[in-house]
């Protein structure tokens, strides 16, 4: 059993990843920001099904609060699986985008990646085994109108992960990115109706959170030991 942290575990994709890692036998820290009740409920559900999980809550943009929470999480034993999944979007065409929309999206996705990942790397290195998996987006690969902030933040996660993969490769730690297309969650429901999905996605359906979770579960497994520094798309053929 490894100890795993999934940021944004209170959200649609994050919850599916928590369930998958728990069913693979890991102890899962289910992270939330504002919806701590959802993380608590999911932890109770997983424990009820015989798994091992607990809820944690902090804002990944608050470096001090994040560091304190991570210290408490790692007090008993180091985390060996980290899934950076927390993210937001705040869309606007660029000429009309406000500075705070730009800043906030970068802050949660990119600075949040630093705030969570950096304190965990040295303890993970000492165990000589680790998995760092970050959830990005197809928008980082193709670009997307109205999402310059989101695509910039997610694209930077690709570069950061490829660099970190090189630093950690000799320590038994893999670092990869999963780039989903349109996945059936509250986040995508606002943006895409069925007609739009049929037009944009060759498979003519949204992906399921569980399909993303299965890919993350594989990347977190011992079988994926030789995969590192990769951006892996899961998007029904969009690119
Ligand atoms: P949700 O909106 O359902 O979940 C977002 C999660 O991020 C929530 O758990 C939320 O916590 C957390 N979060 C937001 N802001 C903060 C913050 N400041 N500090 C800590 N946590 C925060 O989104 P999805 O499940 O749909 O998306 C998950 C990831 O997948 C995101 O990174 C997203 O960009 C990416 N993605 C999603 C796609 C989709 O179609 N759904 C497509 C491609 C990528 P809380 O609710 O507790 O505040």
Description:
The structure is a single chain. The protein starts with a strand and ends in a 5-residue tail after the last strand. The protein has 239 residues and is α/β, with parallel strands linked by helices. The protein has helices spanning 12-23, 36-48, 63-73, 99-127, 139-142, 148-168, 186-191, 194-200, 209-219, and strands spanning 3-6, 27-32, 52-57, 81-84, 130-135, 173-180, 231-234. The longest helix is centred in the middle third of the chain and has 29 residues, at 99-127. It has a single domain, classed as Rossmann fold (3-Layer(aba) Sandwich). The relative contact order is 0.15. Strands 3-2-1-4-5-6-7 form a seven-stranded parallel β-sheet, sandwiched between helices. The structure holds NADPH dihydro-nicotinamide-adenine-dinucleotide phosphate (NDP). Residues 7-8, 10-14, 32-35, 59-61, 85-88, 108, 135, 137, 180, 182-183, 185-188 line the site of NADPH dihydro-nicotinamide-adenine-dinucleotide phosphate.
Short description:
By secondary structure, the chain is α/β, with parallel strands linked by helices. It has helices at 12-23, 36-48, 63-73, 99-127, 139-142, 148-168, 186-191, 194-200, 209-219; strands at 3-6, 27-32, 52-57, 81-84, 130-135, 173-180, 231-234. One of its GO terms (molecular function) is oxidoreductase activity.
């Amino acid at each position: 059993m490894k100890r795993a942290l999934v940021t944004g575990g209170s959200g649609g994709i994050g919850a599916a990843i928590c369930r998958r890692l728990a069913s693979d036998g890991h102890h899962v820290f289910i992270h939330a920001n504002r919806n701590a009740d959802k993380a608590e409920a999911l932890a109770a559900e997983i424990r009820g099904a015989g798994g091992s999980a607990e809820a944690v809550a902090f804002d990944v943009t608050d470096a001090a609060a994040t560091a304190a929470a991570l210290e408490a999480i790692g007090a008993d034993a180091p985390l060996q699986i980290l899934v950076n999944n927390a993210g937001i979007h705040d869309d606007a065409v660029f000429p009309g985008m406000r500075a705070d929309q730009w800043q906030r999206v970068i802050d949660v996705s990119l600075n949040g990646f630093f705030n969570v990942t950096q304190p965990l790397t040295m303890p993970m290195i000492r165990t000589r085994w680790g998995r760092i998996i970050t959830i990005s987006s197809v928008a980082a690969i193709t670009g997307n109108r109205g999402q310059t902030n989101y695509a910039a933040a997610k694209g930077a996660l690709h570069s950061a992960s490829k660099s970190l993969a090189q630093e950690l490769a000799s320590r038994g730690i893999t670092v990869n990115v999963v780039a989903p297309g349109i996945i059936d969650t509250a986040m995508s429901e606002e943006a895409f109706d069925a007609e739009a999905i049929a037009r944009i996605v060759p498979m003519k359906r949204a992906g399921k959170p569980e399909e993303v979770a299965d890919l993350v579960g594989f990347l977190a497994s011992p079988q994926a030991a030789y995969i590192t520094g990769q951006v892996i798309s899961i998007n029904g053929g969009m690119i």
